[in-house]
Design goal:
The structure holds two protein chains of two kinds.
Chain A lengths: L2 E6 L11 E5 L6 E5 L3 H11 L9 E3 L5 E3 L2 H14 L3 E5 L5 H14 L2 E4 L6 H10 E5 L1 H7 L2 E5 L3 H4 L3 H6 L15 E5 L12 E3 L6 H12 L8 E2 L2 E2 H13 L2 E6 L1 H4 L5 H14 L4 E6 L6 H12 L5 E2 L6 E2 L6 H6 L5 E5 L3 H4 L2 H9 L2 E4 L5 H5 L2 E3 L10 E4 L5 E4 L12 H17 L1
Chain B lengths: L3 E10 L4 E11 L2 E3 L7 E4 L4 E4 L1 E6 L4 H9 L26 H10 L2 E9 L4 H9 L5 E6 L5 H8 L3 H15 L5 E3 L3 H4 L20 H15 L5 E4 L9 H9 L16 E3 L7 E2 L7 E2 L1 H10 L3 E4 L7 E6 L2 H11 L3 E6 L3 E9 L5 H16 L6 E2 L13 H9 L1 H10 L3 H7 L11 H15 L17 E4 L10 H8 L3 E4 L2 E5 L2 E2 L7 E7 L4 H13 L18 E7 L1
Parallel strand pairs in B: 1-4, 1-5, 6-7, 7-8, 9-10, 10-11, 11-14, 14-18, 23-24
Antiparallel strand pairs in B: 1-2, 2-3, 5-19, 12-13, 15-17, 16-17, 19-20, 20-21, 21-22
The chains are: A alpha/beta, B alpha/beta.
Bound molecules: iron/sulfur cluster.
Chain lengths: 439, 565
């Protein structure tokens, strides 16, 4: 007899779908099927359940670059020692694990004078800076489902990156005041290229690459009825800008979803400043919100826990005995570039695949540990790789959706025998660090 | 557990009627005791004041809007960080301190119980995660009900049993403590950029008025016999002339008698009344209506209030009153965060500078104090700042000073840039009442504990009660300078939380035995409500019903108050 587990939370993207149905074999060890998930979400479950590809014990890199299996105890000792010895260890990641694990990691960082940064460093860090400048009028995704008749996707392509976003919250669902679903909504997509998302748009503003800021400011001016200079603005005909402005203003409830196409293109946080100000302006005419399309399933949670424990959402430097925050100085990439860290600890992310090469080389040069269920470019350059159970598949824990709504991830299957979870591993490291620091 | 005897302190305890007598207080097994053995550790409190741990009835210290306040205001952390110590984590922040700092600072002032005054149910797990990371103090959180679609529909149809079943379910699901109402109807209207500014404005599409919502929830609260009454932030907060709406709201409770087994005598708690006591019809002729408000409160025994005193600091305003925060950002043009929460509430956050050079701010400051000084029954009028809205909670000792010292108030009044105008728009200059230590104990301990239905547990020093005890290094009869008041109440000599010494000589020495208080109100099972909940989650919520409940492991050391209907 197979077992069916309902209301399962998908630990892949920031959409954090919580309606998955997972079927496992009789003894709860193998996943047989996943219903309701999109292709990427389903794959995460199925893949994790196939233990034949998995590393199930920590590995230490040898002189010749090969890896040799070590015990968890040895991995704990190694991790605790490099962190306790370091003056300024970089502790990066935290976005693909539970808030409970983040919290233990932060305590270690506090004891060791570490720098804690999460994957916002390379995605929505600019958004967080913009929010610190101008605030953020926002809402939960259920508000979008129930009320929104105007949707903008700016610099994001949910059809690929957040596949169920449009069906659960933003385009297709019928809500309390949106009984006609997609028919009741007007969709604007801002993207330099045609995408699978833009094919659904009523208006596709094909902004010239790198000109988001101009287009945003033009929309702000158009909304106020001010004249626009030039026939084409940021690659978009003036009339189309006016048309888009009219669509936005004439709606009853609108929302801007934006992604890395605009947070990491020219202008960075200034783009988001402008997008938020556009949202704020629109509230003088109608109701409008803005929501960041966060990537990792719990990057938002990492920012939340950092916020309540230290007061800042990312790039937190604890090395001076108090929390300092100055993105551009205290972020992971800058710290690595300046060769300022003297050890690296990575959990719940893959900087080896996403950081600039200079930083990747620096990670390889330093004493380092990577905690990850998978073999990744990061685990291949770190001194020690500690495989752990999958959060949201083999162990539960709290996560925050892109709209900051907390959802508790569920455990659906057992991890391979003898494997630790992030939380267990970090707790053991914390205990050992305390001992080392006491001596 | 250790035994303690606090010797020869000057004790103020409204619970037992002790008014400044020199007495010993005994602590045994976490409770106040009649006597202790000879092994008890002795604390010399000669010449010092001894009171029960203070009880905070209304504060915003945990959850989504508080954390957004932290994350979007890095500037709030300037100059405020303290490194960790033997018993403490590093801690910082001024108007929105980190969770650790929140626990330490409240404890250092002698507060041992603190209520988080607005919990959006959908975010309840977040609230509890923060509560878990807030050391020392006992906490509870009030889920918001005043803009909830279930409540609207049941009340509209006069289905009182269904309202009660829903309240019971939501308190249990969110591990909540009481029924909170914020801008009833108005926060829902804000979903469309609108508001309900009087208690009779209908809520768009829901065919119900704020008055009906408040009255309905008040009735349900008393029928259920919950420990606390409804806890209300009414409509039209912060606008000139709003005292009339406040009085209209108060009148909803007329003639209603309390029904509960917890010793509470009010059926209605109105919070941060300072923001609701404004006369005039513009900022130009803005004036205090504290007297009119307090005349009503003094005459009506079935209600309690808290003050919401302005402290004249830079702070971070945050409330589930979404339209108000939008209004505020259009006034001060500072950054604005807003979150509308599906089917439940809205909220907003805007930094604010209460500048004593601004006439309106100085008048607000005076109104908060007038409310306190007009109080005839200190057991029904509690000191708050609506932290962080009118000022950070760490300023409580300063407010005590102002309430206790006419000299300190007059000095402030004289120092304002628009001193004459402030004096003309308020009555403070002519008020020479000075709140006594005994009255302070009523307004910060016995009163709020009673209003919360915790009168047998905290806020007093009767044998058998939790041993929350504070020793302050001050003698009411020997104060030479009002500054001594602020100093002494800002840093307690000793604080005991349920019998554990948590603060000694002003320093945190233990993280105590923190508990989370929540109310399990039992009502007959109601299949209609069960079906409605399932249907609404399926159709309108963005999370599944089975992922909504805050599971027990998120609730730090739970203390469950069971209520049988
Ligand atoms: S949209 Fe994201 S959260 Fe939802 S199933 Fe797909 S990967 Fe998982």
């Amino acid at each position: 007899m197979s077992k069916t587990i309902t209301d399962v939370v998908c630990p892949f993207c920031g959409t954090l779908c919580d309606d998955l149905i997972v079927t496992t074999d009789d003894d709860g060890k193998k996943i047989l099927g996943v219903d309701n998930a999109c292709a990427i979400g389903a794959e995460k479950f199925v893949h994790s359940s196939d233990h034949s590809h998995r590393v199930t014990r920590p590995r230490k890199m040898q002189e010749d670059g090969s890896f040799k299996e070590i015990t968890y105890e040895e991995a704990i000792e190694h991790t605790a020692t490099i962190l306790a010895k370091a003056k300024k260890p970089l502790m990066y990641g935290w976005s693909s694990t539970s808030c409970e694990a983040d919290s233990v990691g932060h305590e270690i960082a506090e004891l060791c004078g570490g720098i804690v940064d999460n994957t916002a460093a390379v995605c929505h860090g600019t958004t967080l800076i913009a929010v610190q400048n101008v605030g953020i009028p926002s809402c939960t995704l259920g508000e979008v489902k129930n009320r929104a008749d105007r949707i903008i996707f700016w610099g994001c392509n949910p059809a690929h990156a957040h596949p169920r976003h449009m069906s659960r919250y933003s385009i297709f669902p019928r809500g309390y005041f949106t009984g006609k679903g997609a028919k009741q909504r007007k969709i604007i997509v801002v993207d330099p290229r045609p995408t699978d998302t833009s094919t659904l748009a009523d208006v596709h503003l094909q902004v010239e690459q790198g000109y988001d800021y101009e287009l945003l400011q033009a929309l702000r001016a158009a909304i106020r009825g001010e004249p626009l200079v030039g026939d084409v603005i940021a690659g978009v005909p003036k009339e189309t800008v006016y048309e888009a402005a009219e669509i936005l203003k004439s709606g009853r409830f609108g929302v801007i979803f934006f992604g890395m196409g605009v947070t990491q293109s020219l202008g960075k946080d200034h783009n988001i400043d402008a997008a938020i100000c556009l949202t704020k302006d629109l509230n003088d005419y109608t109701k409008f919100s803005i929501v960041a399309m966060r990537g990792h399933f719990n990057v938002t949670g990492s920012g939340q826990v950092l916020g309540w424990q230290f007061g800042f959402p990312y790039a937190v430097d604890l090395s001076r005995g108090f929390a300092r925050y100055n993105p551009g100085e205290t972020g992971a990439i800058e710290v690595l570039k300046r060769q300022e860290a003297d050890a690296v600890f990575v959990l719940g992310s893959d900087p080896g695949a996403h950081f600039p090469m200079r930083c990747v080389k620096e990670i390889a040069r330093l004493p380092s540990v990577a905690i990850d269920p998978h073999i990744t470019p990061t685990t291949e350059i770190c001194d020690v790789h500690v495989p752990v159970a999958f959060v949201g598949v083999e162990v539960g824990g709290n996560c925050y959706r892109m709209d900051n709504v907390p959802i508790e991830a569920r455990k659906v299957v057992e991890p391979p025998e003898g494997m630790m979870s992030d939380y267990q591993f970090l707790s053991a490291v914390l205990d050992r660090v305390k001992e080392l620091k006491a001596n | 557990m250790s035994e303690y005897i606090i010797k020869n302190g000057i004790v103020y305890d409204p619970k037992t009627g002790v008014k400044g007598e020199v007495k010993d207080i005994c602590i045994k097994d976490g409770k106040i005791a009649d006597k202790v053995s000879s092994k008890a550790k002795s604390i010399d409190a000669k010449g010092k004041t001894v009171m029960a741990g203070a009880v905070e009835i209304h504060s915003h210290v945990a959850g989504p809007k508080v954390n957004e306040g932290r994350n979007f205001r890095p500037e709030d952390k300037l100059f405020s960080y303290k490194p960790g110590g033997k018993n403490t984590r590093m801690a910082g922040g001024f108007s929105i301190p980190t969770t650790f700092k929140t626990g330490y600072e409240y404890a250092k002032m002698g507060y041992t119980t603190v209520m988080e005054a607005a919990m959006p149910p959908l975010y309840a797990r977040h609230v509890h995660e923060e509560i878990k990371d807030t050391p020392i103090i006992d906490q509870g959180a009030f889920p918001v009900f005043g803009n909830n679609w279930f409540v609207f529909e049941y009340l509209k149809n006069n289905e009182m049993d269904n309202v009660m079943a829903y309240i019971s379910w939501l308190l249990k699901t969110t591990k909540g403590y009481a029924i909170k109402i914020v801008n009833p109807g108005g926060s829902e209207a804000w979903g469309w950029g609108e508001n309900c500014t009087t208690i009779h404005d209908p809520v768009p599409y829901f065919d119900i008025t704020p008055a009906e919502i408040m009255k309905g929830l008040l009735t349900a609260n008393e029928k259920m016999g919950l420990p606390h009454s409804i806890h209300v932030h009414t409509n039209n907060l912060g606008n000139p002339g709003n005292y009339k709406d406040t009085l209209d709201t108060f009148k909803l409770a007329e003639g209603v008698k309390p029904n509960n087994k917890f010793g509470r005598e009010q059926v209605f708690h109105h919070t941060h009344v300072q923001f609701h006591s404004y006369g005039g019809d513009s900022w130009a002729n803005f004036e205090s209506k504290a007297k009119e408000i307090m005349d009503y409160v003094n005459a009506n025994k079935n209600m309690t209030i808290d003050l919401g005193c302005v402290t004249l600091d830079e702070t971070t305003t945050m409330t589930a009153d979404g339209p108000f925060e939008h209004h505020l950002t259009t006034l001060n043009h500072l950054k604005w965060a807003n979150v509308d929460v599906e089917l439940e509430t809205s909220s907003g956050i805007v930094p604010y500078v209460y500048d004593p050079r601004v006439k309106v701010c100085a008048i607000q400051w005076a109104i908060g104090l007038e409310l306190g000084l007009y109080t005839k029954d200190p057991m029904r009028s509690f000191i708050t700042t609506d932290h962080p809205n009118a000022g950070p909670f760490i300023r409580y000792p300063r407010i005590f000073k102002w309430l206790m010292s006419d000299k300190s108030r007059q000095e402030m009044l004289k120092s304002f840039k628009y001193s004459d105008k402030v004096i003309a728009a308020t009555n403070l200059a002519s008020m020479d009442r000075e709140i006594t230590f005994y009255e302070l104990a009523q307004m910060t301990r016995a009163g709020p504990a009673k209003a919360l239905g915790l009168t047998d547990m905290c806020g007093g020093l009767a044998p058998g009660m939790d041993a929350d005890v504070v020793v302050y290094n001050i003698d009411e009869n020997k104060i030479k300078d009002p500054e001594e008041i602020e100093k002494a109440f800002g840093t307690a000599s000793q604080v005991f939380k349920s019998g554990t010494l948590v603060v000694d000589k002003g320093e945190v020495v233990s993280n105590g035995n923190k508990r989370t208080l929540w109310v399990d109100a039992k009502v007959p099972t109601n299949s209609q409500v069960e079906r409605d909940v399932q249907m609404k989650f399926l159709k309108y919520y963005s999370v599944n019903l089975n992922n909504y409940e805050v599971s027990d492991h998120y609730v730090a050391n739970p203390y469950v108050i069971e209520v049988e209907n």
